[in-house]
Batch of 2 targets.
Target 1
Amino acid sequence: MPVMDKLKAISGSIAIVGVAESDNIGRVPEKGPMELHAEAGRNALADAGIDKSEVDGVFTAGYSTYDIAEYMGITPHFTDSTSVGGSSFVIHIAHAMAAIAAGYCEVALITHGESGRSNRARAGGNPGLAGAQYEAPYGIMGAPIGYSLAANRYMHQYGEDRTREAMANIAVSTRKWANMNEKAYFYDTPMSFDEYHDSRWVSWPFHLPDCCLVTDAGAAIVITSAERAKSTKKGGVNVLGVAEGHDHSVLHQMPDLTRTWGRHTGPQALEMAGLSHDDLDLAMIYDSFTYTVLATLESLGFCGPGEGPDFVADQRTAPGGDFPLNTSGGGLSYTHPGMYGIFTVVEAVRQLRGETGQRQLDTCELAMAHGTGGTLSSTGTVILARD
Amino acid sequence: MADGYNKPIPIPQPESDNYWEGAKAGELRLRKCDDCNQAYFYPRNICPECGNNNTSWIVASGNAKIHTFAIVHRPPHPGFMDDVPYVPAIVELEEGPRMATQIINVEADPSVISIDMAVKVVFESITDEISLPKFEPA
């Protein structure tokens, strides 16, 4: 089990000093995924005012770090290709904290890039893995089907109508945030409750707007010690709490389809930070699907099991509501190339710095960024604070 | 094998040869830990609960209940184009473990299918080597 005394000793020891997307996100067929990594990495280093030659720790998922580092011309002394789906890039922050605290490296670069919409390569799987033998033959492939299976279990336990209303609330409130973010895929496309309810089925109980976008995009994060962060271009956003883990890979092995590993990472990250849920000004929670948000809010401890529908009722998570959630427009309406987790951190850092224009929160000093990976399989949580 | 079967086909692995041979023979074979005295899915020689390898094979009754299901309208793979809407599911076997499957021989309608509905195994032959355990209303 995590040793809280040791974790608390390194709370606040690192800071995020650069964040960026690739030059373009959305439909980017003219660039491949490696280029999206490199472009985002260069942009994040520029945001930090740190030269590429100073990067000595490299972190990525979906590719091996040696592919990305070679492409960018970086020769790191610390390398971490931990790849557990869309939460990986949040988890990399925890690993960067451990590496910097232990002295393995001083400047960590986390990169992401995927051509989810325009990719020319077809993904291949390992036929020995459980998913290939025991799920794919039944047409249980791809995220919407797995997550819809979990969502129906939640409906059964906590009521179909209130679950449906909660998913609609999340879809509509997230869209409102996207309508305030000019980088968002659906910036110019509002969505009403009627449009939500009238949309087509993808995999019942999911309507199309219950499902995240499929886009092309990259993003990157630069991290260094809190001490060194003070002399960077924009200063640092301190990392106060981190947590990670997973409890299954394939969906049918998930112990409880309504509870994610966030049940551990939410409390751990907050305790490490010495904070409680009520202290947070912003929650950036991976929204691969509306249901992911519902199950995650409960698992993280913002409310109890089955209480999520009341928690998100009446557009409480929309602009002007008292629980700002996914202010970029999220994976549902801003961008989602495949492993979206890094974008939760990018938006949280920008809100904490006061860089988000018309969607800027009046008060944003403490934020949670939370990633989910696989089929509700892995989670990573970080607590971020304005210096 | 039906001509033109173009859905994903399981490739048996050393620890699952017996499972797939069982399915071809019309048996749903499970691993059971003789230390925990508990059946588990999917087949592994080492018990995922206690970590011991004092494990054996049993033949499941084939009786189960639906733990959850969905109704797929947009095919995730070209092989399922003609199947939509179809009903992927997780079922809970009488012996305890859960497995992923499809519910067949039922209308793909959430007002007809329900969680906790009793189902029983049927084996669908897809190649000379592979039959898939699917489930239908009991």
Target 2
Amino acid sequence: MKKLLAMLLVGVMTLSLAACGGSTDADTATDDTSAEASTELNIYMWQQYISDDLIAAFEEENNCTVNLSYMSDNADAINKLTAGGGDEYDLIMTCDAYMESLIAGGYVEEINLDNVPNSANINDAYWVSKGYCVPYLMNYIYVVYDSETCPIEITGYNDLIDPALKGQISTIDGARNLFPMALVALGYDPNSTNEEEIAAAYEWLVKFNENVAAYGNAEQNLTNGTVSVAVTYDGNASWAMAEKDTIKIADFTDDAIQLGMDLYVIPTGAKHVDLAEKFLNYICDPEVMAKNLDEFPYSCPNDAAVAAASETYQNDPARQFDYKENVFFQEDVGDAITIYNDYYQKLKVGE
Amino acid sequence: MSTYTAPKKKNLLPKIAMAGPVSVWMILFVTIPMLYVIFISFMSRGVFGDVVYEFSTESYSTILDPTYFQVILKSLKAAGLTTVLCLLIGYPFAYIIARKPKDVAAKMITLLMIPFWTNSLMRLNSWLLLFQTSGPVNNFLVNTGIVDKPISFIYTDELVLIGLITNMLPFAVLPMYSTIEKLEKSMLEASADLGANPRTTFCRITLPITFPGIFSAIILTFIPSLGIYTVTDMLGGGKVLFIGNIIKNQFGSIRNWPLGAALSVLLIVVTMLLIFIYTRFAKIEDMEVV
Amino acid sequence: MDAMSRRAKKERRNRILGDVYAILVYAVLYIPIAVMMAFSFNNQRYNYYWNGFTTQWYGKLLNNSALLSSLWYSLFIAILSTVISVAIGTIGALGLKKYEFRGKKAINNMLYIPIIVPEIVMAVALLVIFMNVGLSLGLGSILIGHCTFCIPYAVVTIKGRISGDSNTLEEASMDLGANRVQTFFRVTLPNIFPGVMSAAFLSFTLSFDDVVMSNMLAGARQSTLPVLILSMNKSGITPDVNALTTIMILVIVAAMILNNIIQGALKKKRANY
């Protein structure tokens, strides 16, 4: 083994070379942030959800650095917010369902909308907890399928537990995304706090799980033919449809679908509130958001931006469906979240 | 008895300065945290994922719940299978390298290590790209008419197993290589000259002598495979879960720290058990760990 | 004679079989890398399937600030934890070899815990203790985490390098009037230098590619490259990550070859003297 280690030494030089290059760069990076502390903006949000060009343009316009870091679960953002996120971040992305408790817990700052004049472009119908957040994008969680390979017709959630779809579904993940589908399918309130109903939803999801090939990666799996059905967001469906034109939106007859709202909040104690407000105002600018929508074709609560968006965005087949009004929102379920989490873990653990 | 007494240590400073930092580090960041995990595993869970400091064995009864216990068995099975396959593939491989001239062997070992300077997640992702429905393997199979419909390789237990084996193989090969390398060729020749056939030589001489290397390989593949979650995350499509995934979830989205701690304790127990068996055969200091 | 040649023939056949087997094993290990490199040239937003050749990702890489900053951050952490681990590991290995004290055996056994216990358990243990004492997660917590698994490797590697006669050499040096510090730098360190370098190399590799510890202990605004890639997994890994990884491999391999050439040249030069 000693000889072996000596052999491994071959790599030492190389890595120390690479390391030297790295260290100087890392040093300058830290220098930058400390020297220009007043002109940095730290944002915590979803990955692949905002245009790099948009960020670069904002940086140039305001002579600042924007540091983006990414969450992998909605719970991450909540963890950050409740653990004093203001120390590290100036803007955190979260969703409508958590706003009530975040405000009650004093975890978010009130936003002075006078400093965000462009926010007037946002449709009030989609604006929960106005004054504490600024909506960014929103997404319908619906079912899309490949008309060439999907063996059955899908008109409601209950079709998704049809044994004919075994191993054919790629779905979004997360307790609060999966359980509402089951609850709606069973005729209950999608935000139920009743343990019996949640247990019934769990039983439904066990059958659904049989048909699931993968949680996540809906676009990839749908476009490369691994699955024929996907439960996904409209933006992701848009990309999949652009790749493959046989992908269609399922024609739901009665079941309501979830409309999720992603919004920015300023965590309590944030250090660069001025820049955060500038950023919020910037992304609410119709022209800026319109360009962002071309790159990230999700639904948008900013009506002026949608009006200014490209033809491709406006005619996107991923948003051409007729049950847009039949939606529900995720609501704060309070203590019942533990029940959801326990059943969710049991679902994922089960065979 | 002897009148000689060891000179009293006059100067403790060098001793403290040299052995101190590492000892303090190990106590502070290994022993205390491990004990604290055991402590947490006997606490109760609060509504919002916080730990409530009240004695409870709830976490341990959850582990014994059939659904959870199934995952534990499944993880043990997968880790066991990975270990066996790594040994079966790795032993002949280590043997071949060890029998090469020194400089060739050195190059072969380097060649074995290069993939491990590549990000492990990207290497795992390649298996998905390779085996997905419209990936190169399926295209080849369909175009040559071997199958008429693409096969679903990805998001299966088998692909996870391939990922595990390719990730663990060097850790099995290296310790076995270093023990086989020490094997005297003359001893094998003597055995052959004394009329033993190759099989007898292998069973009576080679295997017993290289056994410590084999056991190191077992420990270094079995235990990490048991706790790993990146392979299942990357290749299992969120459907294949091992203990590691569940522990991670308890500290992430699910937020049940006592349960996560209890599962960690389980892994510690399994590890200690294996080490205990190992120390029956060899000294822990002799374990080849690199 | 006949028997001999039959034996030689058999040995030859076995050797060829062995080589074929080795090539097969290498193939399995290198196929993922080849695929990873190939897909860095894929003309698609995400790597759904092969969609034609492009080199655009190598250019776009330079604009992906999140990716690049995570790379620098990973390097920064890897270097820092290497320096800390090797420093503590070197003097620790010497101290543990040289001195006897109560609890030494316990410390020696403790060193094997981070090596053997699954990393997730160590990560969880550190997380709960950090949370309990109120240490906020960030650069500090990641560094402690990385050092905790690097130090044991460093100690074990270096300890194996300390030869039995090092004590005599040190005593001779001190007898000749050198103080402890001089002795350390002039005698002890050169003696164990190869071990120190292996330890450094090992620590760097372990830290740079670490996912589990970093993922659990990172809370900072910056994520390391492996953590970033893991979080990309759900939405899809973009081909520019493949491009970056490809460049990294090429740099490592090129530098290795260069190093080999230099080492070879030095050896020749020394032989000429």
